[in-house]
Amino acid sequence: MAEKINPASKHRAIIVPAAAIAAAHLSINAEPLLLGSLVDGLDLDVADAGLLATLELVAFGCASLATAPAVNLIRARKAAILALLVTALANILSMLVINFELLAALRIASGAGGGALAAVAYALVSRQPDSEKQFAKCYVALFFSAMLGYLLIPFFSDPFLHRGVFGFVAAGSILTMPVMLMLDDEDGRPGATSQRSPLLSPNVILLIGGAMLLTFSDGLVWPMTERIGSGLGLGSGTIGIILALGVITGMPGLLAAGRLGSRAGTLGPILLGMWGTAIAGLIIALAGGTPMFVIGILLKNPFFFLALPYIMAAASRLDPRGHASALLGGMLPLGAGLGPWPAGAIADQFGFPMVGWAGLGSVLVATFLFCLALWKTRHRMAH
How does the average pLDDT of the chain come out, rounded? Predict the structure, then answer.
């Protein structure tokens, strides 16, 4: 069997895509704190701030969709650096504008840069053996970048509001560029393989649909956490610490996926992680006090990050060329991006509890789609 990837260095094969995935998601991870800063800094209502988040995340997904079919053809290093430059410039300019329409255009540009970068990185990882373990390692890097963001962003958002958040994202993008120079353009090209499954096979479509509904459920609740916490009397610094702790408690899910790999099968870990994160989101939305709010946040990430490596690995097995993984890497944030705007509207009209129930309903439909996508192929995926 041919090698899936031919890196010049085994360590570089994980370090570079892990850094790229972390950088691509910097702005997405900052959404809970950014949303509140936009409300306070630009005097927006929650629905309008949610719309900005939705536009950015939809652009992220669309850029990944556009990049996915070409991941075997483009020069990985140049594409990654260009994507980082677009993201950095969009966030620098976002610090300077107050016009809503112009800011919306810049958030779209930021999301597009992140989405293109993510598509390249996910394709690189998908071609490596035992991709559950490799994706888990990349998500560990994503975890640490998110944790640092939640701890550091309040130091910038408190005095500078949304400008501080945008500046943090721009700085992170710029600091990641030297790591992308380690990429060899041959890293972006798969070895020969006799498997030629279509990019949008029925199982891939079902898998993507289920994954999007899962992240849509997460995108309904997670960006609202700052507003929910503020309603409970918590300051942004305290909320940032709680969110960082939530990231830390998510590590067991990644460690479990990285240790078990394909031995645990695929469908079981996905369903367990999916329902666990949905129930935790409902707890957050229903929180009537700080203890319940904290418990929901601490429970959410372990389950979410247990499911995520298995979902990505399922895509890499359905299409070993890396197209499906690159496509799914963009569709996951796209699903999340569809959440903030309706969540803001639901919260304004009916309150935060209804947001949590909507997330639970999304996961119910996702369960059906995952079962259809993986039931017939579960034995093949487990070996």
Answer: 79
Q: What is the pLDDT of residues 266-275, one digit of tens each?
A: 778 888 888 9
Domains within the chain, CATH numbers bracketed: 12-190+199-381 (1.20.1250.20)
Of 60, 42, 150, nearest to 100 by C-alpha is 42
Quote the CA–CA distance of 303 and 316 in Å, as a whole number.
21
Nearest to 5 by CA among 102, 132, 165, 130: 130
Highest mean pLDDT among 156-160, 192-196, 369-373: 369-373
- Angstrom CA distances, 279 to 159, 284, 288, 350, 360, stand at 35, 9, 16, 19, 7
- Phi and psi dihedrals of 197, rounded to 5? -75, 145
Contact 199, 69 (CB under 8 A): yes
Cα angle: 60, vertex 368, 346; to 5 degrees: 55
pLDDT tens figures, 124-162:
777 666 666 677 777 778 878 877 887 888 888 778 888
